Amino acid sequence: MRRELMRAMVLEETGRPLRLREVPVPEPGPGQVRVRVETCAVCRTDLHVVDGELPAHKRPLIPGHQTVGVVEALGPGVAETGGLQVGERVGIPWLGWTCGECRYCKSGRENLCEQAKFTGYDLDGGYAEYQVVDARFAFPVPAGYPSLQAAPLLCAGLIGYRSLRLAGDALSLGIYGFGAAAHIVTQVARHQGRRVFAFTRPGDEVSQQFAREMGVEWAGDTTMKPPEELDAAIIFAPAGELVPLALQAVAKGGTVVCGGIHMTNIPSFSYEVLWGERVVRSVANLTREDGNEFLALAPTVPVRTEVEVFPLDAADEALARLRSGRIRGAAVLRIGSPEREADRPVERSV
Predict the structure, then answer these.
(1) In this structure, are 220 and 118 located in the same domain?
(2) Do 134 and 162 share a structural domain?
(3) Do the strands 32-42 and 330-334 form a parallel or antiparallel pair, or are they unpaired?
(4) DSSP one-letter string for 78-112
(5) Single pTM value for the model
(6) Coil, strand or helix: which one is 258?
(7) pLDDT band at 350 (very low <50, low <70, confident <90, very high)
């Protein structure tokens, strides 16, 4: 019997454009569900995979790991768990599978699982009309979010939230690189009573103005010193040279959190920059606990995501605009027909 086909944007060779192909609709295996994709946000990690900075673990590969869609079919064993149901709207994040048996999984650090599999990297992702996912790693999406606005919560929001947690109880927070994650975490930080200072590329006055609209107290470029010493900083830009600059911006005892999975080499710097019990740490992936906490918190802030919308076959254009820093907020692919017109957010279509 011939299998039904779906449209997908496929990475066949790194460094080359994605290819729009018709491929078989995936069947859910044991413990999996099939999701009819409505939207998928475009992440800088997708860009690292497509460009080969993070070599894809499989090819051909369907990228994308910020998917929102509706459960359409349950694989064997899912119904018996009493978990996800057909018709439920879910979000699919970067972390797609963990072993559950290693020392990291057993100690609540499944984000560090040595055998972990990642969506849009080890597993086919959401740049497609359908996607399968381990039912354990699909999160119910808060009802108040249209699918276009919910998609960026699944990575930009989750990784931003984990980064903010690792920044500790800092009251003054610097954010380096003001894109999808930064515009979400700024809203959460301000909701928590923190003061936020934004740093952008030199000359990027558009992003600085966007940061001010999101409520930051001060916005400047990375060559500038903030008006006061900061308690902590989060670096979302994948630029290693920002680490010494951020260390110089934080006070003694301050923490610098590197929020990306990929970063260029960090240049050498004098011990004096680190001295004073300053800390540099990275964020690796996310846990299901992060997902459940953040998706419960987002509606109470409430987090508002600003999106630029692209059709599925314009995924390369979305990636190109992200590569050049020309996305305000988050880029999102509209793949299905998510919401009734009355429910849709105000959006900037491209």
Answers:
(1) no
(2) no
(3) antiparallel
(4) HHHHT---TT-EEEE-SEEE--S-SHHHHTT-GGG
(5) 0.92
(6) strand
(7) very low
